[in-house]
Every structure is written in C-alpha cells, then in structure tokens.
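User: Please fill in residues for this 607-position structure.
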C-alpha cells in the first residue's frame, strides 16, 4: 500500500526521504516520487517502478532542500505511470502526498474542472491539491486550508502537504489511514509507519482521526477534528533498531522465519506464570468482559484469517462456546446477526487493514466488546478496540506473513485459555496447555533444523505450475496458509482442500504434474488422512508429506519428512514452519522478489 515520508529540518532532506521510502518498500508499490522546497520553488521527481529508479534519477539531478515530502504509490485510481505518481501539485504552488482513497473524488474533480483547474493525472489525490489551492485564495494559513478542506473529503486519507510561500513548514492530516509523526531534535518528520523513520528518530507522536498538524523544524502544532488545539503524547519506539535490518539473512522473510522461537517466547513473556495464564495481560477490563462472553466472532484478512480458522477449532473444543470466522471484506458488507454476548475478535498484523477496521467500526456498538490480536502498538485497531493483546513479534517486513502468524496463534491460545476458564477448561488442561506453550520455542527451533532437507524438496516444485495442499482438523487451515505462502511468493498456483473433500472435485486435477503437499501429524485424524493420501497415490500424484510419526512411510512417489515431537494442541504452530520454508526455497529457486512479491502489499489500508 502507499507509503508517505516527509521531513522538515535544518539540513538537506533528499537522502532522508529516499531512505524512508526504501524502508517502506515492503508495503508494496509501483511508483515513487519526491517534492522538495528548493531555491527555485517546489521541485519534484517521480519514477515508475522501484525506489532505486527514483534514487538514480535524483543522483543525476539532486534536489536541494530542507523540507520535502515523498511517496510510494500502489495504484488504485489510474495505472501505475509517472503522471499518476505522487506528489501531486496544483500549478507550482503546492505539493501533496496521500495514502487512502477519496470516495467522492469524481464530483469534486468535476466541480474543480468547471472552475478552471487543470488535472494532469487520473488519481483521486490530485483533487486534494486543487482543493487546497482554491482554499488558499480565501485563507492565508496552509494549516487552516487543510483543516477546511478535509471536511469535503469522503473516505480515508493520510496527507503530507508543502506550499511554496512557506518553505519552513509541512502540514499533515489523517483520517482512517496510518500516519505517524517522528519527533527529532531540531527536525521533525512524518511517515506511514515508524520503521520508515528509525534512521532519524525513535520518538513518535500518533495523530487521532481528523487531526491536522503543522510541523516546522522546531515545533509541532496539532489541532483536532473540531479545530481546537490538541496535545498528542510522544512515545518511544519499543523494538530495537536492528529489528528492521536483514542482518546476515538474504531476505527479510527468512530472517523472520528464523526469529520465530524468539518471538513466540516474547509473546508468552509476562503472560504465563507457573502453570497458569496471567489474565491481566488482556487489560484491566478484560475479566469482567470475558465473564459475559457467550460466543466469539472472529474477523480478519489473509494470513490473519487463517489464524482465526485455527482458533475456531480451539475455542469450540476447549472453551465449548460457538465461534464464527469470516473474512472482513465480506462481513462488513452483509447483514449480520450478532447474538448477545458476542466477543468481536479481530486479528491483524498491521492493525491498519481497511476491511478489518471497517468491520470493527460497523459493529462496535452492537457487540459485547471488541478484542484485537495485533502486532503494531498504537495502530488503529489497537486504539479502537476495547481490549488488545499484542503479539510482540517485532516489525515484520516481508510481505508474506510468517512470524506474525505463529505469534497470532500463540496469542489466540492464550485467549482460548482466558475464555475456557469460564466454561469447559479445567485447571489441569490449562496446565497442560501452558506446558505445551513453554516447549514450543524449542520445538520450532527443531523444525527450523529441517531447513536443508526442505530446501532439497523445493526442487520438485520450482518447475511446476499447480500444487495441492491437504490437511484435516486444525491442520487444514495450516495447509491453507502453506498454499497461500507458496502462491504469494513463488507465483505457483496452490489450492488447498480439507483432505476429506478430495473426492468431491479436486481429485480430478491430480496427476504427476501436480505435487500434493500434506501435513500429517500423529492425531485422531491420521488414519483418515492416510486414506485420502492413498487416493492421491492411486491417481499417480506425487506426495510430499510432513509427518509426525513413522506411520506414514516413504515409498516411490511419497516423500516424507518427519517432524519433531510436539503436543497435539500445538501442532498447528509447528507444522506451519516447514511450509513457510518450502515456499521460501521454491521462490528463491524461481528467482522471484521474495520480500516484495508482485502486486501485493504488506498492509492493505484501502479497500
Ligand atoms: C495483506 C498482507 C498479508 C496479510 C493481510 C492481512 O494481504 O500481504 O500478509 O495477512 O494483508 O493483514 P493484517 O495486517 O490485517 O494481518
């Protein structure tokens, strides 16, 4: 999704802006641009493709200035070309970068065109530039102009604006799209997330919806949605700066896969004691809310949705109350029946996914309470939910989610315990689960030790065009997540079915050119699953099985990798690891852009 960076300083900012854009590359984008206040007025440079193309252009013709804005664009309105790339300008007077979508831009555009404003792009953003220029005929302050026009914008926005007559200021505003202010020493910044600015500061201010802020090198003035002066707290970035570097790893994704033992421990830290969950980790209000929960509605997107599917098995089995799971993009638009006592549980790595946030806002007033399982402190979902449990995975840069997923599962198991205590879960089962959670980091470590074997297995996939993933029970969503990983980063078509459904359609696809991946731990479903795998072999399909016992035998056409031992309840976490490694190695063999796969974005902040 689009990324914004802005800086106002007493030193040249071109390189700061470029570095910020590089750090936002993980969000996904298709063009990039900057605009700076120079001696010759506002000058801009835009390029399609990678930030490096922009950096090369600026290397040849640098822009000198101490105030500027920059942007990576992920096309929504208009194709990815230079004319549609941000910043957008109104004549040479002002420049704007925008993340979000202005839903009423067509009406606004017609009105502005009728008044003589000329448009040079197909974007919704350009209307903001012209609206501001028009407003500046009436008011002299850029801050007031921004505050006045945002009322006309329907939709979501995070904005950065510079205006020619005052090169010492940058004005920003947000509603529904992420934006942070980086607070420096004699310089200040804006960005779509904190990672973009860790090179220059580790202190951040979060704006509320409807806020407008003016930044100069020395100060930050914020007004709220009513135009009143507002104080916004400054907080310190919580993770080490190194969390955002690749270190010795070739890709962020691989680094993040390998971080899983450590971050699962971090997710458990301070939340379990002896053989018990410390329920206070959900916040002071949690106990009285959990007492009233009669069912759970889980809403999420992408990988986070898969975590929700697994939690459904856990909640219905261990708590004994109903649990529904749905993707946010469907739920938010249909008529939903919300039974009394519903805990509305959102799961989100970023805390900014537009559909998930919209679903929360849609039902907030009709549910018992909302809880978010999230990885980004201060994000919109965290701020707007009644309760939050942070996953503590640290920054996840690879677009394909890995450590965020396994820590979500860890946090969801803690949630299951908290709810289960009030229903079917006795102290002994709680102790067994806590003990299983404690062993998990080490077991994940052992699964990571299978890397070399998995790398070898990857060779069988690199030339294939289609694959099928199978699992049963909680391992079905794990297989779904494995298929998603493979298609996201290797661009190989990967389907997933609950193995019992094979004979209802997918068997027709099976032949020697369609490798079939199965997750087959030792559990009650193993015999059923083995029968399903026989159905595949009988049709000449090649099997790649991650198995938990010696009851799945390797033979011609069946490749078996034996997984480390683990408690049944934790199998979904452990069996995720080899599937992550498999997709990673297949993608490396195919030479794709592992950390920034084509057409995808890390944080989908527009619909
Ligand atoms: C995008 C990302 C996925 C992620 C999904 C949901 O599609 O590429 O990795 O699972 O959004 O994001 P969230 O931040 O809400 O978990």
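Assistant: Residues filled in for all 607 positions:
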């Amino acid at each position: 999704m689009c990324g914004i960076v802005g800086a106002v300083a007493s030193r040249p900012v071109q390189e700061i802006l470029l570095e910020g854009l590089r750090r936002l590359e993980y969000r996904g984008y298709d063009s990039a641009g900057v605009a700076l206040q120079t001696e010759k007025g506002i000058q801009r440079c835009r390029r399609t493709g990678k930030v490096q193309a922009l950096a090369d252009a600026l290397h040849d013709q640098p822009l000198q200035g101490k105030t500027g804005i920059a942007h990576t664009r992920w096309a929504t309105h208009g194709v990815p070309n230079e004319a549609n790339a941000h910043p957008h300008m109104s004549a040479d007077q002002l420049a704007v970068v925008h993340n979000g979508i202005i839903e009423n831009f067509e009406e606004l555009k017609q009105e502005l065109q009728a008044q003589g404003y000329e448009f040079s792009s197909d974007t919704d953003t350009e209307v903001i530039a012209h609206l501001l220029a028009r407003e500046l005929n009436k008011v002299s302050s850029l801050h007031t102009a921004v505050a006045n026009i945002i009322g006309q914008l329907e939709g979501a926005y995070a904005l950065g604006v510079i205006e020619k007559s005052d090169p010492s200021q940058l004005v920003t505003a947000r509603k529904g799209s992420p934006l942070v202010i980086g607070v420096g020493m004699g310089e200040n910044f804006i960005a779509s997330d904190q990672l973009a600015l860790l090179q220059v500061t580790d202190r951040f201010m979060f704006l509320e919806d409807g806020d407008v802020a003016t930044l100069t090198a020395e100060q930050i003035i914020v007004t709220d949605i009513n135009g009143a002066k507002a104080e916004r707290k400054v907080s310190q970035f919580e993770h080490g700066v190194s969390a955002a570097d690749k270190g010795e790893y070739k890709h962020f994704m691989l680094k993040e896969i390998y971080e899983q033992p450590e971050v699962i421990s971090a997710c458990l830290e301070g939340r379990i004691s002896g053989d018990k969950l410390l329920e206070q980790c959900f916040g002071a209000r949690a106990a009285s809310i959990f007492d009233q929960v009669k069912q759970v509605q889980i809403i999420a997107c992408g990988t986070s949705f898969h975590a929700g599917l697994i939690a459904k098995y856990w909640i219905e089995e261990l708590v004994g109350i109903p649990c529904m799971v749905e993707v946010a993009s469907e739920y938010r638009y249909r008529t939903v029946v919300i039974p009394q006592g519903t805990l509305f549980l959102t799961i989100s790595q970023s805390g900014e996914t537009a559909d998930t946030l919209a679903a929360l806002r849609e039902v907030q007033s009709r549910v018992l309470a909302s809880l978010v399982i999230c990885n980004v402190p201060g994000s919109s979902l965290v701020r707007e939910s009644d309760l939050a449990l942070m996953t503590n995975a640290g920054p996840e840069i690879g677009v394909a989610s890995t450590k965020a997923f396994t820590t979500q599962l860890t946090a969801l198991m803690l949630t299951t315990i908290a709810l289960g205590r009030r229903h079917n879960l006795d102290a002994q089962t709680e102790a067994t689960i806590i003990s299983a959670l404690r062993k998990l980091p080490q077991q994940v470590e052992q699964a990571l030790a299978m890397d070399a074997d998995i790398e070898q297995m990857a060779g069988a996939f690199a030339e294939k065009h289609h694959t099928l993933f199978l699992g049963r029970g909680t391992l079905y969503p794990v297989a779904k997540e494995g298929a998603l990983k493979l298609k996201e980063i290797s661009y190989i078509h990967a389907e997933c079915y609950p193995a019992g459904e094979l004979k209802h359609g997918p068997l027709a696809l099976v032949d020697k050119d369609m490798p079939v991946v199965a997750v087959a731990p030792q559990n009650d479903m193993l015999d059923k699953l083995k029968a399903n795998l026989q159905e595949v072999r009988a049709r000449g399909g090649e099997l790649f099985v991650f198995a938990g016992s010696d009851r799945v035998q390797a033979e011609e056409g069946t490749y078996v990798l034996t997984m480390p031992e683990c408690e049944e309840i934790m199998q979904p976490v452990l069996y995720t690891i080899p599937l992550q490694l498999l997709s990673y190695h297949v993608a490396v063999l195919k030479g794709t852009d592992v950390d920034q796969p084509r057409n995808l974005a890390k944080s989908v902040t527009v619909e």
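For context: The chain has a mean pLDDT of 93.
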